[in-house]
Design goal:
Layout lengths: L3 H14 L4 H4 L24 H5 L2 H35 L6 H26 L13 H13 L4 H21 L7 H31 L2 H22 L2 H5 L5 H10 L1 H20 L6 H9 L8
Length: 302
């Protein structure tokens, strides 16, 4: 494994070479194109369900737009928690090191990403839209507390990758899809390019932290990660998005949870993350393995 300083220096050079300013690089005033979607239909949670067959084309399009808004809202919340953690990382090390310089560079990246996501929410919200769902207070407080209080170690870096890696795979599927709104594609492209550095940094720190961790810390990390993997879909679907397009929110959520198309997409987006956790030794043991196998992050046949 390369030294921490060597990795940080390489990432700093990449940041200098490939960084974007969303305020300049995205045309926020461009009109929405009526023939373009916000999410590919096969990535909308109800795609392929009996309820989907009863929906109008406009309902399907709006559901994709509302689900993208929900994903974006969660992304902003997660990045705020990550920035809190990175500031703590910077405060724990020599400020003259490349490791700290990169941590602060990533904070700057995440600030721009959060602003970009916020502007994206605003750009795709119409005057006649219902109040789109936002993360509840308990989730916001939980993210804030985890970013501020969770010990920097295997769980913090694995949790970072849980958010970043799965979102990255989804965005990679859509950034070159010409059926998607150009502005959405550009937001995704910027995030994918810059987030690749962030994931390299997190994977490197995950490996180091696992090597230093004791057996109790690793056992707790495996158990908590298994629970997060199992409960992940409950955070991905908000009943309000179904209500806002005129569906029964409870029946829609029930069908979405049972939807094999949604499960397959989630497992596909999670492949790299799951492989990273296996390589780090964070998916093993009877209980932990059972939790992962029952989750939507692995194929149900696994």
């Amino acid at each position: 494994m390369k030294s921490r300083e060597a990795t940080a220096l390489r990432l700093l050079r990449s940041s200098a070479d490939k960084s974007y300013d969303p305020d300049v690089d995205i045309d926020w005033d461009a009109p929405e194109l009526p023939d373009k979607l916000f999410l590919p239909e096969e990535l909308v949670t109800l795609y392929g369900t009996p309820l989907w067959e009863t929906m109008t084309d406009q309902q399907k399009r709006d559901l994709g737009r509302y689900e993208l808004a929900w994903i974006t809202s969660q992304g902003i919340m997660a990045e705020l928690g990550l920035m809190t953690m990175l500031v703590r990382v910077a405060s724990m090390h020599d400020p003259t090191t490349s490791h700290v310089h990169y941590a602060l560079t990533e904070v700057a990246d995440e600030c721009r990403h959060s602003t970009m996501f916020s502007r994206g929410l605003e750009a795709h919200t119409r005057p006649d839209d219902p109040d789109l769902p936002r993360p509840p207070r308990w989730m916001i407080r939980g993210a804030r507390l985890m970013g501020a209080l969770l010990p920097i170690g295997p769980l913090s870096w694995a949790g970072t990758l849980l958010v970043e890696d799965i979102l990255d795979k989804l965005q990679r599927e859509t950034m070159n899809d010409e059926s998607i709104q150009p502005r959405v594609r550009m937001v995704n492209r910027i995030h994918v390019i810059e987030e690749a550095r962030h994931m390299t940094y997190a994977r490197d720190e995950l490996t180091r932290s696992v090597e230093r961790a004791g057996p109790v810390t690793l056992a707790l990390t495996r158990l908590i990660l298994g629970v997060l993997a199992l409960t992940n879909p409950l955070l991905q679907m908000h009943p309000r998005v179904y209500k806002d397009v005129g569906l029964d929110p409870y029946e829609a959520r029930r069908q979405a949870l049972a939807n094999p198309h949604r499960r397959q997409a989630m497992a596909r987006h999670s492949e790299r993350f799951v492989a990273t956790m296996e390589e780090a030794g964070l998916i093993k043991g009877r209980v932990t393995t059972a939790l992962w196998r029952r989750s939507d992050l692995t194929p149900r046949s696994a």
